Amino acid sequence: MNRANAVDAGAHQTVALAGTADGLEQLRTLVDAALDAVAASSIKHGGPVTVGGPSAAIAAVRDMMHGEGFLTDAPGPDRVTELFETYAAWSADLTHPSAVSRMQCAPTPAAAAAELLAAVLNQSLHSWESGPFALELERRLISEMAGWVGYGETASGTLTPGGSISNLVGLLLSRDHMLTDAVGSDISQSGLAGSAVRPRILCSAAAHFSIARAAGFLGLGRDAVVKVPTDEMGRMIPEEACRLLDGFTADEVPIALVATAGTTDHGSFDPLPELAALAAERRIWFHVDAAYGIGALFSNSLAPLLDGLSEADSIAFDLHKFGWTPASSSILLVRDEARLSPLAQQAVYLNPPDDEAEGYTALLGTSMQTTRRSDALKIAASLLSLGRKGMGDWVDACHSQARYAAARIDRHPDLELLAEPVLSTVIFRCRTSEAIEDESAWNAAVRRRLMTEGRALLARTKVRRQDGETWVHLKLVFLNPATTKEEIDALLDDVVTAAAEVKEAMRTQVRHS
């Protein structure tokens, strides 16, 4: 079929399914249009994001819709191409050296191509016939990942929609395992109603918010989370965890000790060996949230940060941060496959026992999901593209960028570094010798100005200082191994310039008020 005829404008009857011969021709045309849109987008806005801020983004969606709904009476490839062009133009350019706001990486070409292939073939992992190679690929990938962290042959795991869900699954498993032992019945069957125990989850004060949210989802309540004090770098203090455990009443049952390997701000690593020993001594499930910190595993120089990881009962990590694969690429590993039993499910129309006995097994019983896409494909493609050395080199490059930026900030009279970077995040603030009524508001406004003008995408956080006050700080997250020192210099120069501009605007406002 002629390519032009395959996507005849206005003739929606000619739209074919992607895997057919006609559909593949249409797909080639649309992929070309999508790639052209990506290539044009960086030229159009010149920075990491299009100028204009929230109001302009809202207007862009409105203009693209032309006053219609998505179920338009005039469908066709031109409308799709316009959607692609607008989407690309208004997407954050993760390859831009000034896009340093989130733990969000640009993917390798291999991973992006694999994502397309996974979408075209649309395999699922809930039954053998829905994706025979896809499910065996995930099994092999999980097995290899278990080896990365030092687990043995009894280990297992699953891919999830994100790090928050990986933490949720890990805590689900800990809840059912620990409370079943505590109350003497299968909690996943009987539930928590009428239970005489009060479950408790210990995590650091710097732990990811998903831990408390998971406690709410699991029926434990957010109040079940006990925050353990941290040191000045946001690392859990094991002695404080021990003190809190010693203070529990008889009906308080600690079901999990959650360590963080790579906090969202400092990138700090809790002392895993000491916490693993404490969890073993008290017979508590030890879960490690390594969503960000898993990148250290690929670096010869940074890998010691993860010493003790193999002692965890469960580990959550993402490869859509350090891993250069599209989101979502999150993994939950367990040291003992038997601990996945709360997820076990027999559905006669999906995994009948006689089929499974003949080897037609799927992954329904390892996940909270039924229909589940093959995220293992893009991860495998990226790993096979880079290899171990390539992964390590890229992690080291990002770490070096953070150290360079920190050194430059530390030397600059108008910037203040909070601490030396542990992995690839840098926390700092703009400072001035002149009196400013609210320095936190000033720093926050600097960030917004840079975003609105399309010059840089920075993150922000709040830091409690030694004087007890909490101040807004800015944060850089380096996940682009190609960023140069010159580009980092230019980024920080933009921050300093924007700070001066905002300060002058604030002065003018005060004078006119």
TrEMBL record:
GO molecular function: aromatic-L-amino-acid decarboxylase activity; pyridoxal phosphate binding
Superkingdom classification of source: Bacteria
Cross-referenced SUPFAM superfamilies: PLP-dependent transferases
Cofactor(s) annotated in UniProt: pyridoxal 5'-phosphate
Lyase is among the record's keywords: yes
Protein family (similarity comment): Belongs to the group II decarboxylase family.
Annotated protein name in UniProt: Putative decarboxylase
